[in-house]
Amino acid sequence: MSTVSSDVCVDIRSVHKFYGDFQVLFDVNLEIAKGEVCVVLGPSGSGKSTLLRCINHLETIAAGRIYVNGDLIGYSERNGKLYCLAEEAIAAQRRNIGMVFQRFNLFGHMTAIQNVMAGPVLVKGHSRRCAELLAMSLLERVGLADRARQYPSQLSGGQQQRVAIARAMAMQPDVLLFDEPTSALDPELVGEVLETMKDLARTGMTMIVVTHEVGFAREVADRVVFMDQGRIVEKGAPESVLDNPRNPRTQAFLSKVL
Ligand SMILES: Nc1ncnc2c1ncn2[C@@H]1O[C@H](COP(=O)(O)OP(=O)(O)OP(=O)(O)O)[C@@H](O)[C@H]1O
Questions:
Q1: Residue 32 exposure: Cα atoms within 13 Å on the Cβ side
Q2: Which of 70, 176, 212, 217 has its CA 20 to 30 A from that of 83?
């Protein structure tokens, strides 16, 4: 049983993570409220992607706990000890944690709508009819209803990423994780994906976004987290972290990117 408050969606407690002998995360603590948009900034190699991947247990952790809506991710706890969950149980947890990657990872042999329908049909057991209605409404939401029958190779990078967002939404996750969703895109396609993410944020979706888009952080984030060398060194409202950073490492980073 966890003691997570019902307003908290993601609760990261004292997480440590190693790759072999290399410690990549040090005592990371972060609570994300339901409906919150949290943007994670930081220099390359600071551990942002790794932290995101720990949340849906694509990476194991050496110590600490991660809860999503009160559910301990990846492990069960008995008498203070952690035991790894079976793959099936981890897969069930991942269904509630959507992830959008830098490379869109769409199925190339499926049309846009088939990509969005796949999860609801194959994983959730929805009827094709039901999944098709849901997929169409999501494609409409990301502005791609007219592209539903096209294959990924017939879509631009920005359109493919918007399909990937619709696909993640189709699982009706508790939280959506974005791992640098615009960094593989040509600059002129970045805006349309950020607009889609802004729309999503307005609907009250809980989102954790790793990005270098400081403008997006300023406009959309409820909170900005700054990571450096595996640690959260600063977190707070965007205007406080971005305009008045207190930590010298945040100051140095922002002076380069702004
Ligand atoms: N599978 C892995 N095995 C060993 N080291 C890894 C692995 N994945 C990442 N690392 C190392 O862990 C550190 C953090 O990587 P991570 O990708 O989390 O950083 P990041 O802040 O997301 O960087 P970027 O902004 O460049 O994507 C880096 O030093 C990286 O080289």
A1: 31
A2: 176
Report the residue among 46, 103, 233, 249 best suited for mutation to probe ligand 1: largest number of ligand atoms under 8 A from its CB.
46
Sequence-separated (6 or more) residues with CB below 8 Å from residue 34: 7, 8, 9, 206
* Ligand 1 and 46: CB distance under 6 A: yes
Nearest atom in ligand 1 to the alpha carbon of residue 20 is 4
**CB 181 near ligand 1, within 6 Å:** no
Which tens digits make up the pLDDT trace of 5-49? 679 999 999 999 999 999 999 999 999 999 999 999 999 999 999
ipTM of the complex: 0.97
- Ligand 1 centre distance from Cα of residue 47 (Å): 6
Q: Kindly give the distance from the C-alpha atom of residue 159 to the centroid of ligand 1, in angstroms, as a whole number.
A: 27
Q: Give, in degrees to the nearest 5, the angle at Cα 219 between 214 and 220.
A: 100
Please list, in sequence order, all residues whose beta carbon lies within 8 angstroms of the beta carbon of residue 212, skipping any fewer than 6 positions away.
41, 180, 183, 257
